[in-house]
Specification:
Radius of gyration: 26 Å
CATH superfamily of the largest domain: P-loop containing nucleotide triphosphate hydrolases
Structural class: alpha/beta
Order of helices and strands: HHEEHEHEHEHHEHEHEHHHHHHHHHH
Strand order of the largest sheet: 5-6-7-4-8
CATH architecture of the largest domain: 3-Layer(aba) Sandwich
Shape: globular
Strand content: 5-15%
Bound molecules: adenosine-5'-diphosphate, magnesium ion
Number of strands: 8
Length: about 425
């Protein structure tokens, strides 16, 4: 037994068995890298690292001191990050449309005041497509269930044997471009104009894309004229989507526009309970309430927490209790920067380099502006989940190819220009610390 293990054995006698099992026994002492002044331990995940850092470093240091008669610094670091969630690589050029997710059903959707209106609208449409509200336009913030609701209707139609197309604007656009290039536009038109139900997600991305707006308009008219149901979602109401042809805006408003608000506490509780049931996770009422209170609105975040709780509890062979939950949530908050927006990043870069956000996002070619824009683009690419087309749109570039050229250029600069790299690192640090 090495000295590190001995110390942990000593610690075992001083703390509760559950604490030991849950956290301490996962520690591994690094015999090679530790010195008489430094005791280095590895922990398998961030949760254990934080927990031990906060609660036990002093105690462990003290035990070392008693044993070796000299002052030892204790360091806990992460190794074998088991929960290393693969950064989802967004497929940039997706051809064809997405499939409907079968678990996005009405019965899995929890209804409350915040989403009652949208729910009722979609539900009634699923019973009488093409007649009641056409199009149905659902809008609301991220992760509030727009896609879920839209697909719930899609699933009903599909089960009835109807031809349902579910697509994002991005996929629609890619499909359009591909058919244009292959000179098969009739096939494109036939596909979209002959379906029974068309579901288009995140329609706000039509903004400022004239040629696809034109094509979409004709698709829309053909479907509507034939009494086929159209459902659209967006992050804002039609009026607020800038860069949209007037005729499209008016078409969007012509059916029914329904909003979804962030869920209230009871709805959040119901959603959590439903997700637990679906994912076979058992949580006490106390824990469900706790999670519902701490998470403000984004339902997707709730799902993240549940899967994390589940993964950790399996990994560490422990039951999920309140204390454990609190720790996982703390950990989750640290990951919140995944929700970092391009606005925030641009703002920080802007302040630091004294270039206005509007200039960073402009087509300005002056040296300082290009410099700031490159940095902002690079950091957005690194720290957010935005796709190349989204980046292109945000930074006023022609398309994803322009962005990918820029990123290539930046990567070269990072390799060759020490100052540039330092600036990027410095700003990245700044940004990750504020979120
Ligand atoms: P949006 O499209 O509005 O960004 P999604 O429809 O993708 O949001 O929802 C995010 C996640 O939250 C999905 O997994 C969805 O199942 C879930 N969700 C959102 N609202 C509800 C609800 N009311 N009941 C059950 N699950 C919900
Ligand atoms: Mg969505």
């Amino acid at each position: 037994m090495n000295i590190g293990q001995e110390i942990l054995e000593n610690l075992k006698e001083e703390i509760s068995e559950s604490e030991y099992k849950r956290y301490i026994r996962h520690l591994v002492y690094d015999v090679k890298k530790s010195t008489p002044e430094l005791a280095l331990f590895y922990a398998p995940n961030a949760l254990v690292v934080n927990w031990i850092k906060n609660k036990y470093t002093e105690k462990v240091a003290h035990l070392f001191e008693v044993k070796t008669n000299s002052k030892v610094t204790v360091k806990i670091t992460l190794k074998n990050l088991v929960d290393k969630r693969k950064k989802q690589k967004v497929v940039e050029v997706k051809q064809g449309n997405s499939l409907l997710n079968p678990s996005h059903s009405f019965s899995n959707f929890m209804v409350g005041g915040s989403n009652q209106f949208a729910y009722s609208a979609v539900k009634s449409i699923s019973e009488k497509p093409g007649i009641l509200y056409n199009p149905l336009f659902i809008y609301g913030g991220v992760g509030l269930g727009k896609t879920h609701l839209m697909q719930a209707a899609g699933n009903v139609f599909q089960n009835e044997g109807k031809v349902v197309i579910y697509t994002t604007v991005e996929q629609f656009l890619n499909d359009f471009v591909r058919h244009l290039r292959n000179k098969t536009m009739e096939r494109f038109q036939e596909k979209y104009r002959k379906c029974d139900v068309l579901l288009i997600d995140d329609i706000q991305f039509l903004s400022n894309k004239e040629s696809i707006q034109e094509e979409f308009f004709h698709t829309f008219e053909a479907l509507k004229g034939a009494g086929k149901q159209i459902i659209l979602t967006a992050d804002k109401p039609p009026k607020k989507i800038g860069g949209l042809e007037a005729r499209l805006q008016s078409r969007f408003e012509h059916g029914l526009v329904a909003d979804i608000q962030p869920p209230e506490l009871e709805t959040k509780i119901a959603i959590i309970e439903k997700k637990c049931e679906i994912n076979k996770v058992q949580l006490s009422k106390e824990i469900v309430n706790y999670i519902a209170t701490v998470i403000d609105s984004n339902v997707r975040e709730i799902e993240g927490i549940l899967s994390k709780l589940h993964a950790y509890s399996q990994l560490m062979h422990v039951d999920i209790d309140l204390e454990f939950t609190k720790n996982v949530l703390k950990d989750q908050m640290a990951e919140k920067r995944e929700n970092l927006t391009m606005d925030t990043i641009t703002e920080v870069v802007s302040k630091d380099l004294n270039i206005k956000p509007s200039e960073i996002r402009s087509k300005g070619r002056s040296k300082n502006i290009v410099y700031a824009r490159r940095i902002a683009i690079y950091i957005c690419r690194e720290l957010t989940q935005n796709t190349m087309p989204q980046l292109a749109q945000y930074f006023g570039m022609k398309d994803h190819t322009a962005i990918s050229h820029t990123i290539k250029k930046i990567n070269e600069l990072i390799k060759d220009d020490e100052d540039f790299k330092t600036k990027i690192d410095e700003l990245t640090n700044k940004i990750t610390n504020i979120s």
